[in-house]
Design brief:
Helix content is 34%, strand content 24%. The chain is globular. Strands 1, 2, 5, 6, 7, 8, 9, 10 and 11 form a 9-stranded mixed beta sheet that branches. Strands 12, 13, 14, 15, 16 and 17 form a 6-stranded mixed beta sheet that branches. Strands 3-4 form a two-stranded antiparallel ribbon. The protein has 13 helices and 17 strands. The termini are far apart. It is an alpha/beta fold. Bound molecules: adenosine-5'-diphosphate. Adenosine-5'-diphosphate binds next to α2, β9, β11 and α8.
Protein backbone atom coordinates (compact mmCIF):
# COMPACT_ATOMS: atom_id res chain seq x y z
CA UNK A 1 0.00 0.00 0.00
CA UNK A 2 2.75 2.41 1.04
CA UNK A 3 4.45 1.46 -2.18
CA UNK A 4 1.39 2.45 -4.22
CA UNK A 5 1.09 5.76 -2.37
CA UNK A 6 4.70 6.52 -3.13
CA UNK A 7 4.17 5.73 -6.80
CA UNK A 8 1.12 8.03 -6.85
CA UNK A 9 3.08 10.83 -5.25
CA UNK A 10 5.88 10.40 -7.76
CA UNK A 11 3.38 10.50 -10.63
CA UNK A 12 1.88 13.69 -9.21
CA UNK A 13 5.29 15.31 -8.89
CA UNK A 14 6.14 14.32 -12.45
CA UNK A 15 2.91 15.81 -13.79
CA UNK A 16 3.55 18.99 -11.83
CA UNK A 17 7.09 19.35 -13.12
CA UNK A 18 5.94 18.70 -16.67
CA UNK A 19 3.35 21.45 -16.37
CA UNK A 20 5.72 23.94 -14.72
CA UNK A 21 8.29 23.31 -17.45
CA UNK A 22 5.82 24.78 -19.95
CA UNK A 23 6.07 28.17 -18.23
CA UNK A 24 9.05 30.27 -19.23
CA UNK A 25 8.89 32.70 -16.29
CA UNK A 26 7.13 31.99 -12.99
CA UNK A 27 6.61 35.09 -10.88
CA UNK A 28 5.19 35.14 -7.37
CA UNK A 29 3.52 38.37 -6.29
CA UNK A 30 4.09 38.74 -2.55
CA UNK A 31 3.32 41.24 0.18
CA UNK A 32 4.25 41.44 3.85
CA UNK A 33 0.58 41.76 4.81
CA UNK A 34 -2.92 41.91 3.32
CA UNK A 35 -4.59 45.03 1.96
CA UNK A 36 -1.59 46.64 0.26
CA UNK A 37 -2.95 45.96 -3.23
CA UNK A 38 -1.11 42.72 -3.98
CA UNK A 39 -4.02 41.20 -5.94
CA UNK A 40 -4.70 44.46 -7.76
CA UNK A 41 -1.05 44.62 -8.80
CA UNK A 42 -0.97 40.92 -9.77
CA UNK A 43 -4.09 41.32 -11.95
CA UNK A 44 -2.89 44.47 -13.67
CA UNK A 45 0.59 43.04 -14.16
CA UNK A 46 -0.82 39.91 -15.80
CA UNK A 47 -3.22 41.85 -18.03
CA UNK A 48 -0.51 44.25 -19.03
CA UNK A 49 1.84 41.41 -19.98
CA UNK A 50 -0.99 39.91 -22.03
CA UNK A 51 -1.63 43.25 -23.75
CA UNK A 52 2.08 43.44 -24.55
CA UNK A 53 1.76 40.19 -26.48
CA UNK A 54 3.06 37.71 -23.89
CA UNK A 55 1.13 34.48 -23.32
CA UNK A 56 0.27 34.87 -19.68
CA UNK A 57 -1.35 32.81 -16.93
CA UNK A 58 -2.68 34.29 -13.69
CA UNK A 59 -3.18 31.94 -10.75
CA UNK A 60 -4.82 33.26 -7.61
CA UNK A 61 -4.03 31.19 -4.54
CA UNK A 62 -4.59 33.79 -1.87
CA UNK A 63 -6.35 31.66 0.77
CA UNK A 64 -7.24 34.78 2.73
CA UNK A 65 -9.48 36.15 0.01
CA UNK A 66 -9.15 34.94 -3.56
CA UNK A 67 -10.19 38.23 -5.17
CA UNK A 68 -9.00 37.84 -8.77
CA UNK A 69 -12.39 36.63 -10.16
CA UNK A 70 -14.06 39.75 -8.76
CA UNK A 71 -11.31 42.06 -9.98
CA UNK A 72 -11.67 40.71 -13.52
CA UNK A 73 -15.46 40.50 -13.48
CA UNK A 74 -15.31 36.70 -13.80
CA UNK A 75 -17.19 35.89 -10.59
CA UNK A 76 -20.17 34.36 -12.31
CA UNK A 77 -18.28 32.41 -14.97
CA UNK A 78 -18.48 28.64 -14.86
CA UNK A 79 -15.46 26.42 -15.08
CA UNK A 80 -15.52 23.72 -17.74
CA UNK A 81 -13.49 20.55 -17.81
CA UNK A 82 -12.69 18.26 -20.68
CA UNK A 83 -10.59 15.12 -21.10
CA UNK A 84 -7.42 17.23 -20.73
CA UNK A 85 -8.43 18.77 -17.42
CA UNK A 86 -9.84 22.06 -16.17
CA UNK A 87 -10.09 24.86 -18.71
CA UNK A 88 -8.93 28.18 -17.29
CA UNK A 89 -11.03 31.25 -17.97
CA UNK A 90 -9.74 33.31 -20.83
CA UNK A 91 -9.45 37.09 -20.55
CA UNK A 92 -8.75 38.98 -23.73
CA UNK A 93 -6.43 37.33 -26.21
CA UNK A 94 -3.40 36.32 -24.18
CA UNK A 95 -4.47 35.81 -20.58
CA UNK A 96 -5.63 32.60 -18.88
CA UNK A 97 -7.00 32.89 -15.37
CA UNK A 98 -7.60 30.41 -12.59
CA UNK A 99 -8.45 31.12 -8.97
CA UNK A 100 -8.87 29.15 -5.83
CA UNK A 101 -12.13 31.07 -5.51
CA UNK A 102 -13.48 29.22 -8.53
CA UNK A 103 -13.08 25.88 -6.75
CA UNK A 104 -14.78 26.96 -3.54
CA UNK A 105 -18.45 26.57 -2.80
CA UNK A 106 -18.36 29.25 -0.15
CA UNK A 107 -15.98 32.17 0.16
CA UNK A 108 -15.08 31.05 3.70
CA UNK A 109 -14.09 27.51 2.70
CA UNK A 110 -10.39 28.02 2.08
CA UNK A 111 -9.42 29.70 5.32
CA UNK A 112 -10.38 26.66 7.42
CA UNK A 113 -8.31 24.26 5.30
CA UNK A 114 -5.39 22.52 6.92
CA UNK A 115 -1.88 22.71 5.46
CA UNK A 116 -1.92 19.50 3.37
CA UNK A 117 -5.29 20.42 1.82
CA UNK A 118 -3.88 23.79 0.84
CA UNK A 119 -0.82 22.15 -0.72
CA UNK A 120 -3.13 19.77 -2.61
CA UNK A 121 -5.28 22.63 -3.90
CA UNK A 122 -2.28 24.61 -5.15
CA UNK A 123 -0.87 21.55 -6.93
CA UNK A 124 -4.24 20.80 -8.51
CA UNK A 125 -4.59 24.36 -9.77
CA UNK A 126 -1.29 23.97 -11.58
CA UNK A 127 -1.21 20.42 -12.86
CA UNK A 128 -4.92 19.84 -13.61
CA UNK A 129 -5.46 23.11 -15.48
CA UNK A 130 -4.94 23.39 -19.24
CA UNK A 131 -2.52 26.28 -19.08
CA UNK A 132 -0.66 25.40 -22.28
CA UNK A 133 2.69 27.04 -23.00
CA UNK A 134 3.10 30.37 -21.24
CA UNK A 135 5.65 33.17 -21.33
CA UNK A 136 4.61 34.38 -17.88
CA UNK A 137 2.91 32.56 -15.04
CA UNK A 138 1.90 35.11 -12.40
CA UNK A 139 0.96 33.79 -8.99
CA UNK A 140 -1.08 35.95 -6.65
CA UNK A 141 0.36 34.36 -3.51
CA UNK A 142 -0.94 34.36 0.07
CA UNK A 143 0.35 37.42 2.00
CA UNK A 144 2.92 37.33 4.79
CA UNK A 145 5.97 35.20 5.34
CA UNK A 146 4.41 32.11 6.90
CA UNK A 147 3.82 28.53 5.81
CA UNK A 148 1.52 29.42 2.93
CA UNK A 149 3.93 31.42 0.74
CA UNK A 150 6.63 28.94 1.73
CA UNK A 151 4.50 26.05 0.39
CA UNK A 152 4.02 27.95 -2.86
CA UNK A 153 7.79 28.38 -3.29
CA UNK A 154 8.29 24.67 -2.64
CA UNK A 155 5.59 23.63 -5.09
CA UNK A 156 6.75 25.97 -7.86
CA UNK A 157 10.27 24.57 -7.30
CA UNK A 158 12.28 27.11 -9.29
CA UNK A 159 10.28 30.33 -9.60
CA UNK A 160 11.94 33.05 -11.64
CA UNK A 161 11.45 35.25 -8.62
CA UNK A 162 9.15 37.44 -6.58
CA UNK A 163 7.64 40.86 -7.08
CA UNK A 164 7.05 42.38 -3.67
CA UNK A 165 4.23 44.89 -3.20
CA UNK A 166 4.29 47.43 -0.42
CA UNK A 167 2.67 50.70 0.57
CA UNK A 168 4.70 53.69 1.70
CA UNK A 169 3.59 53.57 5.35
CA UNK A 170 6.30 52.64 7.81
CA UNK A 171 4.59 49.54 9.13
CA UNK A 172 4.08 47.84 5.81
CA UNK A 173 7.56 48.89 4.76
CA UNK A 174 8.90 47.01 7.77
CA UNK A 175 6.59 44.12 6.83
CA UNK A 176 8.09 44.14 3.38
CA UNK A 177 11.59 43.93 4.84
CA UNK A 178 10.44 40.66 6.34
CA UNK A 179 9.22 39.54 2.89
CA UNK A 180 12.64 40.25 1.42
CA UNK A 181 14.40 38.40 4.23
CA UNK A 182 11.95 35.54 3.58
CA UNK A 183 12.91 35.52 -0.13
CA UNK A 184 16.60 35.40 0.84
CA UNK A 185 16.01 32.49 3.20
CA UNK A 186 14.11 30.40 0.65
CA UNK A 187 16.50 31.45 -2.15
CA UNK A 188 13.76 33.19 -4.12
CA UNK A 189 15.26 36.00 -6.23
CA UNK A 190 13.59 39.38 -5.65
CA UNK A 191 12.74 40.76 -9.08
CA UNK A 192 11.75 44.05 -7.57
CA UNK A 193 9.64 46.06 -5.17
CA UNK A 194 6.53 48.00 -6.19
CA UNK A 195 5.38 50.85 -3.98
CA UNK A 196 1.60 50.93 -4.27
CA UNK A 197 -0.80 53.68 -3.14
CA UNK A 198 2.11 56.06 -3.35
CA UNK A 199 0.77 59.63 -3.20
CA UNK A 200 -2.63 60.77 -4.38
CA UNK A 201 -3.05 62.47 -7.73
CA UNK A 202 -5.92 64.95 -7.51
CA UNK A 203 -8.25 64.29 -10.45
CA UNK A 204 -8.97 68.03 -10.72
CA UNK A 205 -5.63 69.82 -10.37
CA UNK A 206 -3.39 66.76 -11.04
CA UNK A 207 -1.21 67.78 -8.06
CA UNK A 208 0.35 64.89 -6.15
CA UNK A 209 -0.30 64.77 -2.40
CA UNK A 210 1.67 62.30 -0.31
CA UNK A 211 -1.03 61.00 2.04
CA UNK A 212 1.20 58.28 3.40
CA UNK A 213 4.90 59.01 3.23
CA UNK A 214 5.83 58.39 -0.39
CA UNK A 215 9.23 57.00 -1.38
CA UNK A 216 9.62 54.61 1.57
CA UNK A 217 9.65 51.60 -0.72
CA UNK A 218 12.38 53.15 -2.85
CA UNK A 219 14.57 53.93 0.17
CA UNK A 220 13.98 50.47 1.60
CA UNK A 221 14.81 48.78 -1.74
CA UNK A 222 18.09 50.69 -1.93
CA UNK A 223 18.85 49.89 1.66
CA UNK A 224 18.21 46.19 1.19
CA UNK A 225 19.97 46.10 -2.13
CA UNK A 226 16.98 44.99 -4.19
CA UNK A 227 15.59 46.30 -7.46
CA UNK A 228 12.93 49.03 -7.32
CA UNK A 229 10.31 48.63 -10.06
CA UNK A 230 8.25 51.78 -9.55
CA UNK A 231 5.35 53.49 -7.83
CA UNK A 232 1.60 53.31 -8.41
CA UNK A 233 -0.31 56.27 -6.96
CA UNK A 234 -3.44 56.03 -4.86
CA UNK A 235 -5.89 56.14 -7.73
CA UNK A 236 -9.66 56.48 -7.09
CA UNK A 237 -10.41 54.92 -10.50
CA UNK A 238 -8.59 51.74 -9.41
CA UNK A 239 -11.09 51.32 -6.56
CA UNK A 240 -14.16 51.89 -8.74
CA UNK A 241 -12.82 49.80 -11.60
CA UNK A 242 -11.96 46.91 -9.26
CA UNK A 243 -15.35 47.06 -7.55
CA UNK A 244 -17.05 46.88 -10.93
CA UNK A 245 -14.90 43.99 -12.13
CA UNK A 246 -13.27 46.16 -14.80
CA UNK A 247 -9.50 45.75 -14.51
CA UNK A 248 -7.90 49.17 -14.46
CA UNK A 249 -5.21 48.73 -17.07
CA UNK A 250 -7.76 47.55 -19.64
CA UNK A 251 -10.20 50.35 -19.16
CA UNK A 252 -7.90 53.26 -18.32
CA UNK A 253 -4.94 52.27 -20.50
CA UNK A 254 -4.16 55.87 -21.47
CA UNK A 255 -4.21 57.35 -17.94
CA UNK A 256 -1.15 58.72 -16.13
CA UNK A 257 -1.39 55.84 -13.63
CA UNK A 258 -1.45 53.30 -16.47
CA UNK A 259 1.74 54.89 -17.79
CA UNK A 260 3.33 54.27 -14.38
CA UNK A 261 2.25 50.63 -14.55
CA UNK A 262 3.80 50.43 -18.04
CA UNK A 263 7.09 51.71 -16.63
CA UNK A 264 6.95 48.98 -13.97
CA UNK A 265 6.40 46.32 -16.66
CA UNK A 266 9.28 47.69 -18.69
CA UNK A 267 11.56 47.70 -15.63
CA UNK A 268 10.54 44.15 -14.82
CA UNK A 269 11.21 42.95 -18.38
CA UNK A 270 14.59 44.68 -18.35
CA UNK A 271 15.50 43.09 -15.02
CA UNK A 272 14.51 39.64 -16.26
CA UNK A 273 16.24 40.27 -19.59
CA UNK A 274 13.12 39.80 -21.69
CA UNK A 275 11.66 42.07 -24.35
CA UNK A 276 8.23 42.61 -25.79
CA UNK A 277 7.24 40.29 -28.66
CA UNK A 278 7.02 41.95 -32.05
CA UNK A 279 3.39 43.07 -32.33
CA UNK A 280 1.33 41.45 -35.06
CA UNK A 281 0.29 44.05 -37.58
CA UNK A 282 -3.43 44.41 -37.11
CA UNK A 283 -5.39 47.40 -38.35
CA UNK A 284 -6.11 49.63 -35.39
CA UNK A 285 -9.74 50.71 -34.92
CA UNK A 286 -10.47 54.41 -35.31
CA UNK A 287 -10.51 56.39 -32.06
CA UNK A 288 -13.92 56.10 -30.37
CA UNK A 289 -16.17 59.10 -30.06
CA UNK A 290 -15.25 61.13 -26.93
CA UNK A 291 -18.12 61.24 -24.44
CA UNK A 292 -18.39 63.27 -21.22
CA UNK A 293 -17.37 61.26 -18.13
CA UNK A 294 -20.90 61.11 -16.74
CA UNK A 295 -22.24 59.34 -19.83
CA UNK A 296 -22.24 55.58 -20.06
CA UNK A 297 -23.05 54.37 -23.57
CA UNK A 298 -24.72 50.99 -23.99
CA UNK A 299 -24.89 48.93 -27.17
CA UNK A 300 -27.73 46.41 -27.46
CA UNK A 301 -28.55 44.21 -30.47
CA UNK A 302 -32.26 44.57 -31.25
CA UNK A 303 -34.93 43.00 -33.40
CA UNK A 304 -38.47 44.40 -33.41
CA UNK A 305 -37.59 46.87 -30.67
CA UNK A 306 -36.39 44.23 -28.18
CA UNK A 307 -33.13 42.49 -27.35
CA UNK A 308 -32.12 40.06 -30.07
CA UNK A 309 -30.95 36.89 -28.34
CA UNK A 310 -28.42 35.98 -30.97
CA UNK A 311 -25.68 38.52 -31.06
CA UNK A 312 -24.46 39.19 -34.55
CA UNK A 313 -27.77 38.06 -36.09
CA UNK A 314 -29.49 41.32 -35.19
CA UNK A 315 -30.27 43.81 -37.91
CA UNK A 316 -30.09 46.86 -35.67
CA UNK A 317 -28.27 48.13 -32.61
CA UNK A 318 -29.72 50.42 -29.96
CA UNK A 319 -27.10 52.87 -28.68
CA UNK A 320 -28.31 54.27 -25.39
CA UNK A 321 -26.66 57.03 -23.38
CA UNK A 322 -27.24 56.89 -19.65
CA UNK A 323 -26.41 60.01 -17.64
CA UNK A 324 -24.91 58.88 -14.32
CA UNK A 325 -25.41 62.33 -12.77
CA UNK A 326 -29.06 62.75 -13.69
CA UNK A 327 -29.69 59.02 -13.29
CA UNK A 328 -31.62 58.66 -16.50
CA UNK A 329 -31.42 57.77 -20.16
CA UNK A 330 -30.78 60.92 -22.17
CA UNK A 331 -30.51 59.53 -25.70
CA UNK A 332 -31.50 56.44 -27.68
CA UNK A 333 -30.29 55.92 -31.23
CA UNK A 334 -31.04 52.96 -33.45
CA UNK A 335 -28.20 52.24 -35.85
CA UNK A 336 -27.56 49.75 -38.63
CA UNK A 337 -24.41 47.74 -37.95
CA UNK A 338 -21.98 46.97 -40.78
CA UNK A 339 -22.43 43.62 -42.60
CA UNK A 340 -21.84 40.69 -40.27
CA UNK A 341 -18.26 39.55 -40.58
CA UNK A 342 -16.09 38.07 -37.83
CA UNK A 343 -14.43 40.81 -35.79
CA UNK A 344 -16.33 43.65 -37.44
CA UNK A 345 -18.90 44.30 -34.71
CA UNK A 346 -16.42 44.78 -31.85
CA UNK A 347 -14.47 47.25 -33.99
CA UNK A 348 -17.62 49.13 -35.01
CA UNK A 349 -19.05 49.29 -31.47
CA UNK A 350 -15.70 50.50 -30.14
CA UNK A 351 -15.72 53.28 -32.73
CA UNK A 352 -19.26 54.19 -31.62
CA UNK A 353 -17.88 54.87 -28.13
CA UNK A 354 -19.86 52.02 -26.52
CA UNK A 355 -18.81 51.19 -22.94
CA UNK A 356 -21.12 48.25 -22.21
CA UNK A 357 -22.75 45.60 -24.39
CA UNK A 358 -25.83 43.78 -23.17
CA UNK A 359 -26.42 40.51 -25.00
CA UNK A 360 -28.56 37.40 -24.72
CA UNK A 361 -25.89 35.10 -26.05
CA UNK A 362 -22.44 35.55 -27.48
CA UNK A 363 -19.56 33.33 -28.57
CA UNK A 364 -16.31 33.26 -26.57
CA UNK A 365 -14.28 34.77 -29.39
CA UNK A 366 -16.57 37.77 -29.83
CA UNK A 367 -16.56 38.31 -26.07
CA UNK A 368 -12.77 38.37 -26.00
CA UNK A 369 -12.64 40.81 -28.90
CA UNK A 370 -14.88 43.18 -26.94
CA UNK A 371 -12.74 42.85 -23.84
CA UNK A 372 -9.68 43.59 -25.97
CA UNK A 373 -11.42 46.72 -27.25
CA UNK A 374 -12.05 47.81 -23.63
CA UNK A 375 -15.80 47.16 -23.77
CA UNK A 376 -17.63 45.53 -20.87
CA UNK A 377 -19.93 42.65 -21.82
CA UNK A 378 -23.04 41.44 -20.02
CA UNK A 379 -24.21 38.08 -21.33
CA UNK A 380 -27.40 36.14 -20.63
CA UNK A 381 -29.95 38.98 -20.50
CA UNK A 382 -33.61 38.08 -21.13
CA UNK A 383 -35.66 39.59 -23.98
CA UNK A 384 -36.81 43.08 -23.02
CA UNK A 385 -36.71 46.61 -24.36
CA UNK A 386 -33.21 48.09 -24.49
CA UNK A 387 -34.27 50.90 -22.12
CA UNK A 388 -35.44 48.45 -19.44
CA UNK A 389 -32.23 46.44 -19.79
CA UNK A 390 -30.06 49.53 -19.39
CA UNK A 391 -31.95 50.72 -16.29
CA UNK A 392 -31.69 47.24 -14.72
CA UNK A 393 -27.96 47.11 -15.52
CA UNK A 394 -27.30 50.51 -13.96
CA UNK A 395 -29.16 49.43 -10.81
CA UNK A 396 -27.17 46.16 -10.84
CA UNK A 397 -30.49 44.31 -11.05
CA UNK A 398 -29.98 42.68 -14.42
CA UNK A 399 -29.98 38.91 -14.05
CA UNK A 400 -27.58 36.80 -16.11
CA UNK A 401 -29.37 33.69 -17.36
CA UNK A 402 -28.02 31.10 -19.75
CA UNK A 403 -25.72 32.18 -22.59
CA UNK A 404 -28.16 31.68 -25.47
CA UNK A 405 -25.53 31.25 -28.14
CA UNK A 406 -22.10 30.34 -26.94
CA UNK A 407 -20.68 28.99 -30.18
P1 LIG B 1 -4.33 42.68 -1.17
O1 LIG B 1 -4.35 41.68 -2.27
O2 LIG B 1 -2.97 43.14 -0.82
O3 LIG B 1 -5.10 42.25 0.05
P2 LIG B 1 -6.11 44.23 -2.85
O4 LIG B 1 -5.45 44.15 -4.17
O5 LIG B 1 -7.30 43.36 -2.61
O6 LIG B 1 -5.05 44.01 -1.67
O7 LIG B 1 -6.45 45.76 -2.60
C1 LIG B 1 -7.06 46.22 -1.40
C2 LIG B 1 -7.94 47.43 -1.73
O8 LIG B 1 -7.11 48.51 -2.13
C3 LIG B 1 -8.91 47.20 -2.86
O9 LIG B 1 -10.11 47.85 -2.54
C4 LIG B 1 -8.25 47.86 -4.07
O10 LIG B 1 -9.20 48.34 -5.01
C5 LIG B 1 -7.52 49.02 -3.41
N1 LIG B 1 -6.31 49.44 -4.13
C6 LIG B 1 -5.26 48.68 -4.50
N2 LIG B 1 -4.33 49.43 -5.13
C7 LIG B 1 -4.81 50.70 -5.17
C8 LIG B 1 -4.33 51.95 -5.68
N3 LIG B 1 -3.16 52.06 -6.27
N4 LIG B 1 -5.13 53.03 -5.53
C9 LIG B 1 -6.33 52.95 -4.91
N5 LIG B 1 -6.82 51.82 -4.40
C10 LIG B 1 -6.09 50.70 -4.52
Amino acid sequence: MAHEENADMMMEELELTKKLDQFKHKIMVLSGKGGVGKSTVAANLAISLGLNGFKTGLLDIDFHGPSIPKLLGLEHETIHTDENGINPLVYGTNLKVMSLGMLLKSKDDAVIWRGPMKMGAIKQLIKDVNWGELDYFIIDSPPGTGDEPLSVVQIIKNPTGAVVVTTPQDLSVSDVRRSITFCDKVKLPVLGVIENMSGFICPHCHEKTDIFKSGGGQVMAKDMNVNFLGQIPLEPDIVTASDEGRPYIYYYGKSETAKKIDIIIQNLLTFIGDSKPVPQAEPQPAEPEKLPENIKRYGIPVTDGKLCQHFGHSDKFALIDYDLEQNKIIKTEIKNPPPHEPGILPKWLHEQGVHVIIAGGMGERAKNLFIDAGIEVFIGAAVDTPENLVCAHVKKELIAGENMCDH
